[in-house]
Amino acid sequence: MKALDIRGVTDRVRSSLVALLLAPVLVLWPCVASADNGWSEALRGSGFAFGTSKLVFEDRFGTAHTLKGPILWAKQHADVGLEKFDPAGGAAYATVGGVLRLRAYQTADGIHSGNVQSTNADQAYQGAQIVPGTNGFTCIGCYFEVRAQFPNARGTWGAFWLLTPDDPRQRGHLEVDAIEYFGAGDKRGHHHSVHRWGPQEPGGHIKRSDYTGMDAIADFGWHIYGVDLRGIAKLDGKPALVVYMDRKEVARIAADADYFTRPFYFNMTLSINPQDSVRTLPQTVSFDDLRVYK
């Protein structure tokens, strides 16, 4: 697929994403076309309302993580992009000064980077038991957020995103991309989307995606990225998930009821984007203050 230069597009466009691998898969690349999903610009900047929601999970990365469980695991997910994900203990991972850092780097055998998620592979893809907060972590109808800093670099493909554990009887799952960021090649771009994967879907996959261009994200500083799956918000009369940056609304996407009634686990990922012809190596994405409210 031809690489696209998406700098200079209008502030709100619908992203059409392309699948790389069989499920499980991470899909983040932008292929942009104009669209309107019914979201009103009047909602931009609306503050997040906690209401009666309570904190049910928090990790401030104040201690070293083995990333071998019982809650956070490295690797687990299929390799995507130009890199290979390091397993736990690899050079892609470090917990320093209360920050989880994922590093992409070049060696003689190729590019390496990292993925951290809140389930292991058997839990995510084979139906193994999850005991939230004790053995893995999932949450139903929750608000997920993380504080992150993306690098001023080219080739970045960083994300904070959610997946439902696969049903081994159907091999289908839901995906929510709270933030997809492509670094200096698209420094104003906040990408967010929902996906439905499974053999029952046309072509195995359907999606709804949006792009928001904004100056606030272009400073390469620390920001809070979140997505609300509590089902409180509405769009065109349907329950909608709401995407936040610094707890201010960026977008909302109408979604089917099961996005709000199925468990999701979280992922923090740094890949290297094959569509960017310029790549900065090494580069690092930093994560801090991971929180989930229900």
Describe the 3D structure:
- With 294 residues, this protein is mostly beta strands.
- The chain has one domain: Jelly Rolls, CATH 2.60.120.
- 2% of the residues lie in helices and 41% in strands.
- It is built from one helix and 19 strands.
- It has one helix at residues 121-125, and strands at 12-15, 32-33, 55-59, 73-74, 83-85, 93-96, 99-107, 110-117, 143-149, 156-163, 173-181, 189-197, 205-213, 222-228, 234-235, 238-245, 248-254, 265-272, 283-293.
- The protein has a 19-stranded mixed β-sheet that branches.
- A hairpin with a 7-residue loop joins strand 12 (189-197) and strand 13.
- The longest helix is centred in the middle third of the chain and has 5 residues, at 121-125.
- The radius of gyration is 18 Å and the shape is globular.
- The model is unreliable at 1-36 (pLDDT under 50).
